Amino acid sequence: MHSRLRIIQGDITRQQVDVIVNAANSSLLGGGGVDGAIHRAAGPALLAECRQLAASRGGCPTGEAVLTGAGNLPARAVIHTVGPVWRGGGQGEAELLASAYNNSLQLAAEHRFATIAFPAISTGIYGYPKAAAATIALRTISQFLQQHDYPQQVWLVCFDEESYRLYRQHSEQADDGG
Ligand code: ADP
Q1: Rounded percentage of the chain residues whose pLDDT exceeds 70
Q2: What atom of ligand 1 comes closest to residue 123's alpha carbon?
Q3: N or C: the chain end with fewer CB closer than 10 Å?
């Protein structure tokens, strides 16, 4: 695994990093899962900013990412990205999931954020199989880190034990070259 990548188990809203990533939906107007948790912890300022973005640019297409402030969160900013809904794997889901990670990392790099924390995008309500999503997340982030100096550290924050176990397994396999 890349030395600038960390896998932890916990609640992303509590992480002391420069920027946390939200697995948002295209409307940017809030939802369940990690999106709901982030909005609850950040407070109404975040929703107000998201509403403005939704009005000015019509939300955020799948695979893309937008930046906002962080309200009451310990982080300095939030990157909202939209992962794909799993529809069986034949609808470009893998590419869209990789784009969600890549565009978030690109935005963090442009803003010179040193530390970024990601949830397991698309693996909750959007139904992406967790093992396949873990492979894409680890591969996409490792490739990005090899090519960029920023962000300096990426944290993968697993909420549930299963995601944590899968991320660890997959990162060990990558270390073995398999
Ligand atoms: P999506 O709609 O992209 O599937 P979800 O929020 O439903 O987004 O789920 C994405 C992942 O975020 C899931 O693995 C879920 O367990 C996880 N998750 C939910 N709440 C939190 C949280 N507070 N911190 C980190 N991860 C979370």
Answers
A1: 98
A2: 4
A3: C
Residue nearest atom 1 in ligand 1 by C-alpha distance: 122
| pLDDT for residue 48 is more than 60 | yes
Burial class (CB in 10 A: 0-12, 13-18, 19+), 93: buried
Asked if residues 115 and 145 have their Cβ atoms less than 8 Å apart, the reply is no
pTM value is: 0.97
Tell me which long-range contacts 111-114 makes (C-beta under 8 A, separation of at least 24).
111/19, 111/67, 111/77, 112/150, 113/18, 113/19, 113/76, 113/77, 113/150, 113/151, 114/18, 114/150, 114/151, 114/152, 114/153
Distance CA 168, CA 24 (A): 25
* Residue 174: pLDDT band with limits 50, 70, 90: confident
Pocket of ligand 1 (CB under 6 A): 11-13, 23, 33-35, 37, 83, 119-126, 157, 159-160, 163
